[in-house]
Amino acid sequence: MSNILDQAGMGEAVLSGKEAWAYSEDILLKVSRTFALNINVLKGKLHKSILLAYLYLRIADTVEDDPDMNASEKEVLLDKFAEIFRTAELKDEAVEAFESALPEHWRTRSAEPYFDLCLHTHVVVPLLKELPEVYAAPVRDVTIEMCGGMAKFAKRQEAALSSGWFTLESVGDLDEYCYYVAGIVGKLLTHLFAADTCLIGEARKKEMQKLDVSFGLALQVANIVKDCREDSERRVCFVPEEICRRHGFNHSYEMFVDEVAGEAVPEAAAAFEKRRAAVMGELVQKAWKHLDDAIAYTKLIPSIKMRTRLFCLWPLFMAAENMKLIGDGSAIFASDKKVKISRDTVKQIVKSTMKHFYSDKWIDRKFTEVKTSTSI
């Protein structure tokens, strides 16, 4: 497989559909830290559509994350990528235009999975044409919408970084950012889940649509909380400034400058730790509220759809267990090590949910147990 891909390119070796799907499954494991586990529990057209959606959004995210491109360059590339999906034909010339415009240094680093995926856009894009339109159309729509949102925030980030840090002013700004990177994925899932079973009729689908954006935000806000110290190392802070000001910080990034904590004044250091824990505690509470919605969303999936429920339950309980560890927010700063659940906890989540996925009462009871065992 790798030998074929080494030779494959626009106008070069053409992969068979089977080989292209094999590449997609393989690259997923390389570009996803945890989501591959959830995707691979699915089967059939639902599995394929979510797999492809993930890869397309990962390509867009790789463009948005590149530190060497300016915002205008990112906007052009993201628009070229979105152009691929503006028609159901997924025209080869649009794919070629995008690949040809990729930065040259990505080609010299093609062994890195994210760049490898982008350079094989021509391999993964045509696969969407194999799926029925009821699956393919939502994937095209979400890819276009996310590209537009990422271009918008790339401009904001560039403007902000000129002054040193990328920050968000308000909770509304945070919600907008999370919508573009995760909330629209929740919308996508509702369409795909409904396409996959006649048991989700229009009435149930409408109930799910009231909660699906919050489902996406639950996972994104939990990740922002968990990853905030790593983000600070690249001078990015998604914690809204307005929350930080409520607790005595002029700017959110002041939480990551341990000047006070380093002073020989224990009282000042303790007060500093208390204030930044209070800031993160507010974000933890926000994550819990979205997780409440996400659990309600998951229970709207017919209980007979085991794999679909597991797809949702695994990341939700992992996020909940992480919020449990973080507690009132102080644990984030208590150690140099990142706060995250153990592999044993992940295994226990998988084992218990596979046994009880069908029971709404068990899901409620287990989630409440995790939530109420925190110090919040």
Properties at a glance:
376 residues, mainly alpha, two-stranded parallel ribbon, 18 helices, 2 strands
Give a structural overview.
The protein is mainly α and 376 residues long. It is 69% helix and 1% strand. The protein contains 18 helices and two strands. It has helices at 2-7, 17-31, 35-39, 44-65, 71-84, 92-101, 104-108, 113-119, 121-124, 133-161, 171-196, 202-209, 212-232, 241-246, 266-299, 306-326, 343-356, 360-372, and strands at 166-167, 236-237. A two-stranded parallel sheet has the order 1-2. The relative contact order is 0.09. The model is unreliable at 6-12 (pLDDT under 50).
Q: Which helices and strands occur, and which strands form pairs?
A:
Elements: H1 2-7, H2 17-31, H3 35-39, H4 44-65, H5 71-84, H6 92-101, H7 104-108, H8 113-119, H9 121-124, H10 133-161, E1 166-167, H11 171-196, H12 202-209, H13 212-232, E2 236-237, H14 241-246, H15 266-299, H16 306-326, H17 343-356, H18 360-372
Parallel strand pairs: 1-2
Helix pairs in contact: 2-4, 4-8, 4-10, 4-11, 5-6, 5-10, 10-11, 11-13, 13-15, 13-16, 15-16, 16-17
Overall 3D shape: globular
Name the average pLDDT. 92
The main sheet orders its strands as 1-2
Helical segment count: 18
> What is the strand tally?
2
Structural classification: mainly alpha
Percent in helix: 55-70%
Strand content: under 5%
Ends apart, CA distance between termini: 50 Å
Low-confidence regions: 6-12
- Characterize the largest beta sheet: strand count, sense, and whether it forms a barrel: 2 strands, parallel
SSE arrangement, N to C: HHHHHHHHHHEHHHEHHHHH
The gyration radius over C-alpha positions equals 21 Å
